[in-house]
Design a protein that fits this description.
There is one protein chain. The chain is an alpha+beta fold. The chain has two domains: 178 residues, no CATH class; 93 residues, no CATH class. The strands form three sheets. A four-stranded antiparallel β-sheet has the order 1-6-5-4, with helices on one face. A hairpin with a 4-residue loop joins strand 5 and strand 6. The radius of gyration is 22 Å and the shape is flat.
């Protein structure tokens, strides 16, 4: 759950992650004083120029009505035999940007004993409310049934950043009123379902090609949906868009949605898809769905 703090929150005010380092007391005190002064300045500016909630809401709804944004605005993942969907990190970033007077970040507080202590936060300077999630990430990666210890700093950075994305998204969404998030999701679904002049048959064809690039065949999609590809409607396209976004972002593996994928060599699956397509396969970017 999100931890909600009131001033003065003892946290840094700049975004991004930094490695844990050893500093002397004087340097630490200077940095703390600078951070406090910077935070107070930002809160003062936020009070002088408060957000216009109606204007912010209008900007959010306009963004959700654009197909280019809507394609990356939702995620979907399997849980307890059901599909759970919601706003993606891309939507959370847009909401915070339009809402204004907020700062969000992901920081590495320390590294020791083969793990990183992390903090994700979103700070609303106007209300002086901070939403915080603290968590630890072990420096290891599981692959092929084995666990590999990570020692390279770039690998560790990528691991901690990937693990922190979901926590940061949660703090960002907590800072936005629920009704705005719900309305944004509803508009995105409407945009994905019927906001394109492109025939649904062409959209389905591009979707199959995009999934094929990650080894998901047409038959796997049909098994996931529980019916033939030809029966896909706008709701199914919205669902599959969320699935595709979750796989491409690295939050989930394709095999978590399509159980048959673990039984096939990815290269064979891709070849099977390509054989069924009359046209060359399309790009695998989110714009393909």
């Amino acid at each position: 759950m999100n931890t909600i703090q009131q001033a003065p929150p003892p946290m840094p005010t700049h975004q991004g992650m930094q490695s844990g380092t050893t500093v002397n007391a004087g340097t630490a005190l200077t940095e703390q004083s600078r951070a406090v002064a910077e935070a107070l300045g930002k809160m003062q500016v936020a009070k002088q120029f408060p957000r216009n909630e109606n204007e912010a809401y209008s900007k959010i709804i306009q963004a959700c009505g654009r197909m280019a944004f809507a394609k990356s605005a939702l995620y979907s993942y399997p849980k307890g035999g059901q599909q759970v969907s919601g706003p993606s990190i891309r939507m959370a970033e847009m909401l915070i940007r339009c809402w204004g007077n907020c700062e969000t970040g992901l920081k590495e507080l320390s590294q020791r004993n083969g793990e990183s202590e992390m903090m994700a936060y979103t700070w609303d300077y106007e209300t002086n409310t901070v939403f915080v999630k603290n968590f630890a990430v072990k420096h290891e990666r599981k692959a092929g049934g084995s666990t590999k210890k990570l020692t390279d700093q770039r690998d560790i950075y990528e691991l901690t950043a990937n693990n922190g994305t979901r926590r940061q998204r949660a703090t960002m969404l907590a800072a936005i009123p629920d009704y705005i998030v719900e309305d944004a999701v509803a508009v995105v679904k409407q945009t994905l379902a019927g906001g394109s002049d492109e025939p649904i048959g062409d959209r389905i064809r591009k979707m199959i090609a995009a999934f094929g690039k990650i080894g998901v065949t047409e038959s796997m999609i049909e098994k996931y949906l529980g019916h033939e590809i030809s029966l896909i409607d706008s709701d199914a396209i919205v669902d599959l868009s969320g699935v595709f976004n979750s796989i491409k972002s690295g939050d989930f593996k394709a095999s978590q949605y399509f159980s048959d994928l673990s039984k096939k060599e990815p290269e064979k699956a891709v070849a099977e898809v390509n054989e069924t397509l009359a046209a060359p396969p399309q790009s695998t970017s989110r714009d393909d769905i």
